[in-house]
Amino acid sequence: MAENQTTEQAEGNNEKEAATASGQSRLVSFILMGVVAVMAVSTIGYMAINATQAQEQAVTEAGPDEDLVIARIGDREYTTADLEVFVQTLPPQLQQLPLSVIYPSLIEQFVSLELVVNEAYKQGLESDPEVVEALKVEQDRIVREIFLDRYVETQVTEESIDDAYNEFLFANPTETEVRARHILVDTAEEATALIARLDGGADFAELAREASTGPSSEAGGDLGFFSRDRMVKPFSDAAFELAVGDYTKTPVETQFGFHVILVEERRDSDPPTKEQVRDQLFDRLASNAVQAYFRELQAASDVEMFDLSGEPVALSSEEEGASQ
After folding, report:
1. What is the b/e burial string over 150-180, where b = at least 16 CB atoms within 10 angstroms of the residue's CB?
2. 314 φ, ψ (degrees, to nearest 5)
C-alpha cells in the first residue's frame, strides 16, 4: 500500500515537473516571440512604405566595421560581429532588412537578452542537467555536420562533378523542339472549314484570334517551343511530322477538341550548362558519398538494430553484402 502511494507520489511529481518544464518552455518561447514582434512592429511601416528602397539599400549599403563597439555590459564590450550572430537567429524577413533599419529595436533587445544570459550564468545555470544535455545534443549536431561537410569536400571533387555532368548529358540527350501555333475548335467540321480558309490564303494567326477557343487565341495561337513529350500524343505526333511552314491538312483530335496546327520553327534544345546543374550534381554525389560512408562505418563496427517489436533489423551494409 505504502509502495503504491510512493509510486503515485513519484508519478505525480514527475507530471508536475513535466508540466512546469513545459510551461517554462512555453514562457521562454512567448518572450522570444514578443521580442521578434516588437522588432517587426517597429519595422512594418518601413517594409510597407519603402520596401523597394530597403532592397536597394541592402545591396548598396556597406556593412559597419565588425570591431565597432555597439554595447558595453560591465567590463565586456559587444561589437557588430556579436550583433550579426544574433541577427542570424531572427526570421528571414527581418534578416533581409538593412541593419540601419532594424538597429534601434535590435540593439535594445540584444542587450536585454544578453543581460538574461549573464544573470543565468550568475546563477550557475550552465551546470544545470537540462542545459548540459541540451548543449551535448547541440554539440553533437554541430560536430556531425562539420565532420560530414569536411568528408564530402574530400570525396566530391571537380573531376567527379565533371564525370557526373558527362553522365547527365548522356542520360539526357538534346531534344528536338518545334514552335507551333494552333486553332482549337469543338467540331471536326469547324476545323475543316478553317483549313479551307487557310488553303485560300487566310492568315493563321488572325484565324486563331477569331475562331480558337484555346487560351492561346489572343496570342494568335502561339504555343512557343515545346518538345514532343510536352503535349498530348496526337497533337505531338501531328506537329512533329510537319515541315516548317506547313499546317495540318486534316483536323487533329485530342481530348480538348479539334486542332489545326502550324509549325513555324524547329530546333534542337540546348542542354543545361554544368553550372546550371552543379548544385543538383553536387547534392547527388554528396548524398552517395555519405551513404557509402555510413555503410562503411556500419560494416566496421559492432552494431545491432531492432524494430519496434524488438526483432533484429538488418543493416544496409549487411543487405548490400548479401546481394553481391
Report:
1. eebeeebeeeebeebbeebeeeeeeeebbbb
2. -70, 140
Residues 117 and 207 in one domain: no
80-87 vs 99-122: helix axis angle to the nearest 10? 90
pLDDT at 21 over 60: no
Tell me if 114 is assigned to some domain.
Answer: yes
Total number of domains constituting the chain: 3
Find residue 176's DSSP bridge partners.
268
Return the residue matching grid coordinates 543565468. Answer: 120
Instruction: Write out pLDDT tens, residues 223-245.
Output: 999 999 999 999 999 999 999 99
Domain that holds residue 264: 176-268
Mean pLDDT of 301-318: 86
Q: Determine how many CB atoms are found less than 10 A away from the CB of residue 316.
A: 14
Does residue 314 share a domain with residue 196?
A: no
Instruction: Please check whether residues 166 and 309 belong to one and the same domain.
Output: yes
* C-alpha grid cell, residue 144: 556531425
Q: Which of 229, 245, 268 is the last residue of a domain?
A: 268
pLDDT tens for each residue of 61-102? 445 677 899 999 999 999 999 999 999 888 888 888 888 888
pLDDT digits (tens, 9 = 90+) for 131-174: 999 999 999 999 999 999 999 999 999 999 999 999 999 998 88
Q: What is the DSSP letter of 74?
A: T
My answer on whether 113 and 136 are in the same domain is no
* pLDDT attached to residue 94: 84
261 and 248 Cβ atoms separated by less than 8 Å: yes
- The answer on 234 and 221 residing in a single domain is yes
